[in-house]
Design a protein that fits this description.
By secondary structure, this protein is an alpha/beta fold. The protein contains six helices and eleven strands. InterPro entries: FCP1_dom, HAD-like_sf, HAD_sf, Ubiquitin-like_dom, Ubiquitin-like_domsf, UBLCP1. Pfam families: NIF (PF03031). One of its GO terms (cellular component) is nucleus. One of its GO terms (molecular function) is protein serine/threonine phosphatase activity.
Length: about 300
Amino acid sequence: MSSQHDESPPDDLIRASPDLEAQTLPTEIEGLKPLAGSLSTQSVGETIEDEAFVLNFTWAGKPFQLELRGTDRVYDLKSAVQSETAVPPERQKYIGLVKGKLPGDECLVSQLGVPLKSKFVLVGTPEDKTFKDPHELNLSQFPDTSDNFDVAYGNGETAVAPADDPRNIRLITQKISECPINLINPPRPGKKLLVLDLDYTLVDSKPLLAGSLPPLECVRPTLHEFLEKAYEDYDIVIWSQTNYWWLESKLYECGIIGDETKRHKLLCVCDRKSMFPIFGQKNGQKYKHEVKPLSFLWQQPEFQGQW
């Protein structure tokens, strides 16, 4: 999928094989073997159509053009439209693309039944033109990440494992191109890689976001001792689903970076821009799951052959 101005939209950390095998985050330094989640996949039943679709649309009297692949999802269509127009997905209305209502986010572009070259009209109000009452924004908007590993990725006979999905492979390559790594410290020869989440893992995010406690009181007990011990054998990366500016400021406030007295360092930090959603089923229901594919790190040019 490509567009003229592509920004990826934005739950917890996915520890992955070089593609997308989901595992839980290690919480102890002794025997840092992650606990495997109950992830199940199904084999490919038939070839997924991956033809190129060129979609021309008008919005506010202006013409736009998008190119998507058959293995892209309706979610990717909405995200591409948002990057072009700043109209959020929940406010996008498509006229002339499909009959009736646009299918759910998990639907493949190849399943929309549209020609390879299509036209439609978009109706919707951009984000910056929409009034939001600050008093209506609360912490309940943050997703529940307590149980999102029991996911079956697939949809019947054409099910494909996340690691083999052409869309996911393409998005990883796209993210590597769009989201360069800003090294804080160079990788050390012979060290393994440890990727940690920040929110509700290293820090208690609820009082941190609310400002009800000082940042240093929101960190996990013995956090720095844990990081110092881990740093002996691992290069450490913090990967959060928040924006980079917020992530960097909280890392400083919590003393994770910027304190030269600490005997641990970070290799780099990653934010929500390098994440994307994959689709499957959970408890028989369609499920969209945001992931942090570690292949995004392993395939970086500066890290080739490091891990």
